[in-house]
Write a structure and sequence with these properties.
disordered C terminus, mainly alpha, 5 helices
């Protein structure tokens, strides 16, 4: 994959994070009205942005992340797609709760693994991995207060922006022997 495509995926993840923050705030202010069509559309768009973020992380850092980060990136892609599909089903006919639940669990699992991989490998500043991990755990409190999902969106907006502006070396971007990253 070309660097430019990976950077574009990072930009999409940043936009997805901003849209994620938007719908979480909208749900907080409207009293968790999850039947609102624009909010459901925003959830679908933001979930697809998060999918692009997981994909960009795998493409940028695949060889350096090793396990758990690489597995987490692919699990996050699948979870984000299932979550978006469940929200789309909810948007079209009002159902999809089981699909959404499965998508949330898989997306959360993938995001936690990516966060652990980011902190462990120190490719990015560790606070980005910590923010993603904290945001993922906070997202689980969505049913109690939708505003808790804003931290997850903030993590992806920040991480996506960093992926967008990052200029990885040529070749497989996450070459395990490369001496690059935020520490240099």
């Amino acid at each position: 994959m070309a660097k430019l495509r990976c950077q574009r995926a990072g930009a999409v993840a940043a936009v997805g994070g901003v849209v994620w923050i938007g719908w979480a705030v909208a749900l907080s202010t409207t009293g968790q009205n999850t039947t609102n069509t624009p909010i459901l559309a925003g959830i679908v768009v933001s979930a697809l942005g998060i999918v692009a973020g997981h994909y960009a992380i795998e493409e940028f850092y695949g060889a350096r992340m090793k396990r758990p980060g690489t597995i987490g990136a692919w699990v996050g892609v699948v979870g984000g797609l299932v979550f978006a599909a469940g929200q789309l089903i909810r948007l079209l006919n009002g159902g999809g709760e089981a699909v959404i639940g499965i998508g949330v669990l898989v997306l959360v699992s993938g995001s936690i693994l990516v966060a652990a991989g980011l902190v462990r490998t120190r490719i990015q500043p560790p606070w980005l991995g910590v923010l993603l991990g904290f945001g993922t755990v906070a997202f689980l409190g969505f049913e109690l207060q939708p505003a808790t999902a804003t931290v997850y969106g903030l993590a992806w907006a920040t991480l996506g922006q960093d992926l967008y502006r990052f200029d990885p070396p040529d070749g497989r971007f996450g070459d395990a022997e490369g001496d690059y990253g935020w520490l240099n």
